[in-house]
Specification:
Blueprint lengths: L24 H13 L6 H7 L2 E3 L5 E3 L5 E4 L16 H10 L3 E6 L2 E5 L6 E5 L3 E5 L5 H15 L3 E6 L17 H5 L4 E5 L2 H10 L2 H11 L32 E3 L5 E4 L2 E7 L9 E5 L4 E3 L22 H15 L5 E3 L6 E2 L1 H26 L5 H7 L4 H4 L11 H13 L14 H12 L2 H13 L3 H12 L6 H16 L4 H16 L10 H4 L4 H9 L4 H4 L3 E8 L4 E8 L2 E6 L8 E5 L2 H8 L8 E5 L1 H9 L14
Parallel strand pairs: 7-8, 8-9, 9-10, 14-15, 17-20
Antiparallel strand pairs: 1-4, 2-3, 4-5, 5-6, 6-7, 11-12, 12-13, 13-14, 15-16, 17-18, 18-19, 20-21
Helix pairs in contact: 8-9, 9-12, 10-12, 13-15, 14-15, 14-16, 15-16, 16-17
């Protein structure tokens, strides 16, 4: 999942039917071929996704206290019947499955609410209450899921919360199932893998603005829901947009084999760091013979590098932890479930499922490295990469969320970096410079558009997009180029099996037609509040406008009164450095802050509110604040 915290900035939806175009004959022909080559006769997933159904929410529209809609699953009611020509039939199948919502019994004593968010929430019944696993993205949907569970299973108290890993769709709704007061009083425990808090807050902040902007593309946040718009994102339908919070774990799970008993329920843990998330874990319930695989074995190929941006994940380690899970739990489990999608029942099917998932990531890793060592580049490997027949025909190995193409390139990047070794590409021009050169060499922008139109009509959409990319970076207001580029991206979307690719293409088409929609998500203040002082100073350091700060030589003491700790900040050569030291007279200015949150306000320019004491040269502090840049949540992506 994305690590970002969705909060609706507006509710406008783009990509109306008046703007969108029907699929071309080339796209329709490709879909026809998919219907004959993919195993549509295998319908076991539909039986599994329906198994244990207890009740649905009707209507499945969830609102915040102010009436704002934060989740609407009913908008996906169009996902029924045969796939329309504007959606890849495999993706249509996946979206139809993922859109199912309601309360389901996994086994007696374990229940899931699915279809209330991008992720699942799971309830495990103990002696006196319930353990909640992964309380969704936001407060409102988690509370609604808990209410649906209680309506059908009784008003059991929450005694514990488990975060499987450090992405927001697995902790952000925690206040919908418990309170900070109950945790502080010891009535509710919160378990998470070691390193959870650091990664949960860090990934949302350091590159948070850029990730949020691109996440809007990846999830199709502002796209109209429908056969020519957003149909889901493969892993789920979309993130909810309610209140995001976090409660700091009270128990850090540190070692594989660690066992905890909560309310009479024994849980055996397996650590899996550096897989789908930097901090992640699996766990097994002996009393239920049930295995939870977090987000490391779901019904799709996951991302090794998300299109929103993140650190490249380790497929070799990922495969290794899946092997360990098979060896440790495979013969003891009667059901395996995860934080997304539906469970798999039966020991033989569980081992088959986990084995194919393991082989999926291992094959991607090993074969990319083999070809890399034969001198092929990431883009070359991705272009010809083929999965084994068994994986090609396994629905749960299809690339609805991650794709073979961009995962292969991610593996290349993990080992070799961005440079492919060709010296001509070592110092290439950026798009704004190379676009006009290509256009001039081809014979002018009108000629480029003419060639792109011919490629479009011939079904060579990738070449048309390349030509039009150069045209737009030469003259972004050229009406013919802009219109044809939008149409081209739209057709690429219609042909995409990966929901994330579809959403990217449609979002690009939307911005070409309607202008930049910005970032409809922001980093949650609840996450920012959990940053350590060191992480806050890191945020300041990456906000310093280096060239503007070249001539500054500053020494500032920052004292946090609530934790009685002082830090010395120095700014020289455009580099902000911090050290935990005792306050000294050598500081040009000393700033005493009531709390960490007051530092955030100060960095935003608030020097007048309470909770701030300044002694010494206040101009030094003003100089620091004056060279801090604010991120741009609306930077251009598809245009210069």
């Amino acid at each position: 999942m994305c690590a970002l915290s969705p909060r609706a900035a507006h509710t406008r939806r783009y990509c109306s039917d008046m703007q969108s175009k029907p699929p071309t004959p080339a796209v329709e022909a490709a879909h026809g071929a998919h219907l004959t080559t993919l195993p549509f006769e295998d319908t076991r997933d539909f039986a599994d996704a329906a198994r244990g159904f207890i009740a649905a929410q009707s209507p499945c529209v969830i609102t915040a206290a102010d009436g704002r809609v934060v989740w609407d699953n009913d908008v996906y009611a169009f996902l029924a019947g045969d796939a329309p020509a504007s959606v890849h039939p495999s993706l249509w199948r996946q979206s139809t499955l993922v859109a199912k919502q309601g309360l389901y019994e996994v086994v007696e004593g374990i229940y899931q609410v699915r279809g209330f968010d991008l992720s699942n929430i799971t309830f495990v019944e103990g002696d006196t209450g319930i353990i909640v696993i992964d309380p969704l993205v936001s407060t409102e949907v988690a509370a609604a899921a808990l209410a649906l569970y209680r309506q059908h299973r009784g008003d059991r108290a929450v005694v514990s919360v488990i975060y499987t890993h450090s992405h927001v769709d697995h902790f952000g709704g925690v206040l919908g199932v418990t309170t900070q007061a109950d945790v502080d009083a010891g009535r509710v425990s919160v378990l998470a893998p070691e390193g959870f808090l650091e990664h949960a807050v860090q990934e949302n902040v350091y590159a948070g603005t850029a990730m949020a902007r691109r996440a809007a593309y990846m999830y199709g946040t502002v796209l109209e829901r429908g056969p020519r718009g957003q149909v889901g994102c493969g892993l789920g339908q979309t993130p909810s947009t309610g209140e995001v919070a976090i409660i700091v774990p009270t128990v850090d799970v540190r070692e594989t084999g660690e066992v905890h008993t909560i309310d009479g329920v024994q849980i055996e843990f397996q650590m899996a760091p550096g897989t789908e998330a930097p901090a992640e874990m699996h766990f097994y319930f002996p009393g239920f013979r049930a295995l939870c695989m977090a987000e490391n074995a779901t019904h799709n190929l996951h991302n090794l590098l998300t299109l929103r941006g993140a650190l490249v994940r380790d497929p070799h380690g990922w495969a290794g932890y899946l092997t360990e899970a098979i060896d440790t739990f495979g013969e003891r489990a009667d059901v395996v479930f995860a934080s997304h999608h539906w469970p798999t029942w039966g020991r033989d099917r569980i081992v088959e499922f986990l084995t194919l998932q393991r082989d999926l990531y291992a094959y991607l890793h090993d074969q990319t490295l083999r070809q890399l060592n034969q001198g092929q580049t990431g883009i070359e490997i991705a272009e010809t990469f083929e999965m084994p027949p068994a994986l090609e025909r396994a629905w749960h190995a299809r690339g609805y969320y991650g794709s073979v193409s961009h995962n292969v390139k991610a593996i290349y990047q993990r080992y070799m970096g961005w440079f492919d070794g060709n010296p001509a590409r070592l110092w290439a021009h950026p798009p704004e410079a190379i676009g006009p050169r290509y256009v001039a060499a081809i014979g002018g922008i009108d000629r480029v558009v003419e060639l792109a139109r011919q490629a479009f009509d011939d079904g060579d959409l990738r070449w048309a997009a390349t030509l039009l990319d150069h045209a737009i970076f030469t003259d972004e207001n050229h009406a013919g180029a802009r219109e044809l580029y939008a149409d081209t991206l739209e057709q690429l979307a219609y042909g995409s099996e990966a929901a994330t690719w579809r959403n990217f293409f449609l979002s690009g088409a939307t911005e070409l037609r309607d202008g930049t929609f910005g970032t409809p998500t922001v980093t949650s203040g609840a996450l920012a509040a959990q940053l350590s002082p060191e992480q806050l100073f890191d945020v300041l350091a990456i906000s310093v406008n280096g060239p503007r700060a070249w001539d500054l030589d500053l020494a500032i003491d920052i004292t946090f009164l609530d934790i009685d700790t002082n830090y010395r900040l120095t700014l020289r050569n455009g580099v902000l450095v911090y050290r935990k030291v005792a306050a000294e007279d050598s500081a040009q200015v000393t700033v005493r802050l009531a709390s960490k949150l007051r530092l955030i306000a100060l960095a935003a320019g608030d020097s007048a509110s309470p909770g701030l004491e300044i002694s010494g040269d206040a101009g030094v502090l003003a100089a620091l604040v004056g060279v801090l840049d604010r991120p741009d949540p609306s930077f251009d992506i598809v245009t210069p």
